[in-house]
Amino acid sequence: MQVIKRNGKRESVKFDKITARIEKLCYGLDRRFVNSIDVAKKVIEGLFDGVSTTELDNLAAETAASLTVKHPDFALLASRIAVSNLHKNTIKSFSKTMHLLYECVDKKAGKKAPLLSEDVWAIIQEHAELLDSTIIYDRDYGFDYFGFKTLEKSYLLKVDGKVVERPQHMYMRVAIGIHKNDIESVISTYHMMSERWFTHATPTLFNAGTPKPQMSSCFLLTMKEDSIDGIYDTLKQTAKISQSAGGIGLAIHGIRATGSYIGGTNGTSNGIIPMLRVYNDTARYVDQGGGKRKGAFAVYLEPWHADVFEFLDLRKNHGKEEMRARDLFYALWICDLFMRRVEANENWSLFCPHEAPGLHECWGEEFEALYERYEKEGRARRVVKAQDLWFAILDAQIETGTPYMLYKDAANRKSNQQNLGTIKSSNLCTEIMEFTSPDEVAVCNLASLALPRFVIDRKFDHDKLYEVTYQVTKNLNKIIDNNYYPVEEARNSNVRHRPIGLGVQG
Questions:
Q1: Which of 7, 226, 315, 505 could pair with 400 in a Cys bridge, judged by C-beta atoms 3.0 to 4.6 Å apart?
Q2: Measured between alpha carbons, how far is 262 from 355 in angstroms, rounded to an integer?
């Protein structure tokens, strides 16, 4: 049985050579459980004639990973094998790797298709020696197997389907993409990310330094207007944002309910369900970053909307297929009045926003006064027991995991954007509440601190926390300025309000 080496030469498979390679990577592991010979035996069982050394390393890494149930150190061994394999298949020089990305060609079309922006490439050329000497490749070995394979699959840039970046290359690319000619900040950011004090958000890691550096995570939209133009203009916005790796929160409270009159056609509306099926197919078709991860839309609706019961059924596995849209996520934007009526087991009135306008544009006492006025005027489409709707919500959550529950009055009461207007929704992940309007698509620019990293000798290093927080805050503000905005309304909002989200983990 022969193996094909990376230089193309063939040689006989040698058990001792496989064992020695695995043994070399077992340093620091618990040798009572991790035995290189046992791993090598399992690898040999899966070999075939003509296997490449890359495939052999992949098999060894997968074999070690499968033994993680016996001891967690096998995950570290698997990661080390996988990282070593990547290092053998990639160029050590950062500047040469970036040159590969910049000179990338679409071979089928015969056109240049650079994966690096011109300005970033110019900066790398100017400072190549310093940047190359700054990178510390041994830090790649700090990833566990799952983390490294996730990086390899989605984050590290590829040429002709082959990964050419190393994790350290990615960190440096991101640092340059954010700070451009500020080399001091570039190096500081590189070291902090490389040493895993913090991480930037996925779109930042995907896109920093590329020709379309869309580095923001979250986009919050409201429907432009309740019309065919408004619905499809908003659909186009969501598609362009998803294409650039943005997650979407979409408020649809203002779209008229089923059976509402349409003046332009003298017909009646089909309601929100057929519209959401169109958005569902868009989320499936326009994935984030060209296949790196699925498109993700969260749709927000207030519980007074006349189509709310149908909305709750959209992710269910049974029922008419034309009434389902299972690839979207759903959320309710709940007012205090609804919760009080649930508690008291009182009636709850459902309205069409076309026939009872303005409910989604106000909150608190103003909302309650308007809602109760519409009730007295008899504008309700339907009156139900508040607890009936509540139990329908619980049934949907048990069966599908949605809707998310967010509280409109609490969000607006605590918002520091009250001067702008009513907050109409949160984002895909429900962690931010920002103002949206037809000319403002709210954006959030994210990073996350790794708190366990700051614990040294059983003490928390507050000075280091300050240093890292200061740098990350600077980074996030630079992202706002250097970002590529898929829609102009996102630029309007981001530059006006400059929101940043600095979270913690651990």
A1: 315
A2: 11
Do residues 296 and 219 make contact, with C-beta atoms less than 8 angstroms apart?
A: no
Q: What's the average model confidence in pLDDT over 465-483?
A: 97
Integer Cα distance of 432 and 429 in angstroms: 8
pLDDT at 44: 86
- Mean pLDDT, residues 207-224 taken together: 95
The average pLDDT across 432-453 equals: 96
Alpha-carbon dihedral 425, 429, 430, 431, rounded to 10 degrees: -120
State the burial class of residue 484 (Cβ atoms within 10 Å of its Cβ: 0-12, 13-18, 19+): middle
* Residue 11 φ/ψ, nearest 5 degrees: -150, 160
Query: Strand 218-222 and strand 2-4: pairing?
Result: unpaired
* CB 388 within 8 Å of CB 338: no
Q: Which of 42, 51, 306 has its CA nearest to residue 61? A: 42
Tokens of 71: 């001891």
Give, in degrees to the nearest 5, the angle at Cα 424 between 420 and 429: 115
Q: Is the pLDDT of residue 458 over 70?
A: yes
pLDDT digits (tens, 9 = 90+) for 314-332: 999 998 999 999 999 999 9
- CA-nearest of 280, 272, 226, 275 to 248 is 280
Question: Which stretches within 106-257 are classed as H helix?
Answer: 118-126, 128-134, 145-150, 167-179, 183-194, 202-207, 228-243
Provide the phi-psi class of 103: left if phi over 0, else alpha when psi is between -120 and 50, else beta: alpha
Joined tokens for residue 260: 């509402």
Nearest to 359 by CA among 402, 409, 312: 409
- Report whether 270 contacts 319 (CB < 8 A): no
From 115, 214, 126, select the one nearest 169 (Cα to Cα).
Answer: 115
Known catalytic residues are 427, 429, 431
- Cβ burial of 16 (10 Å; 0-12, 13-18, 19+) is exposed
* Residue found by looking up tokens 């650079």 in the block: 114
List residues bridging with 406 in a β-sheet. Answer: 333
Contact 187, 176 (CB under 8 A): no
What spatial distance separates the first Cα and last Cα of the chain, rounded to whole Å?
48
Q: What is the pLDDT of residue 289?
A: 58
How many CB atoms are located within 10 Å of the residue 287 CB?
A: 16
Dihedral (C-alpha) 115, 118, 119, 122: value to the nearest 10 degrees? 100
Note the pLDDT of residue 336: 98
Token pair recorded at residue 106: 């679409």
Query: Half-sphere exposure of residue 390, counting CA atoms within 13 Å on the CB side?
Result: 16
Answer whether residue 250 shows pLDDT above 80.
yes
Q: What is the 3-state secondary structure (H, E, C) of 280-335?
A: HHHHHHCCECCCCECCCEEEEECCCECCHHHHHCCCCCCCCHHHCCCCCEEEEEEC
Cβ within 8 Å of residue 220, ≥6 positions away: 248, 249, 250, 251, 425, 426, 427, 432, 434, 436, 441, 442, 443, 444
